[in-house]
Design a protein that fits this description.
68 residues; three-stranded antiparallel sheet; 3 strands; 25% helix
């Protein structure tokens, strides 16, 4: 499951329409979905994401902002 955060690392209170609250069957599915929607998430106020599997943080926070 993806957790969506703002620039301060706090959870985004109002999720954009592109946000998914579903559990993905595999990490690859979650990453693929993010690869397709990260721009919409960023435009909707999400600055970073954290991937969780059950009660384990897989990785993150990962910024959605392009490298400058």
């Amino acid at each position: 499951m993806w957790i969506y955060t703002d620039a301060d690392g706090s959870p985004v209170e109002t999720l954009p329409a592109a946000a998914s609250t579903q559990d993905f069957p595999t990490q690859a599915d979650a990453e693929s979905w993010l690869g397709e929607t990260w721009r919409e998430l960023l435009d909707g106020g999400v600055d970073a994401v954290v991937l969780w599997e059950d009660d384990r943080q897989v990785y993150g926070p990962m910024s959605l902002h392009p490298e400058s």
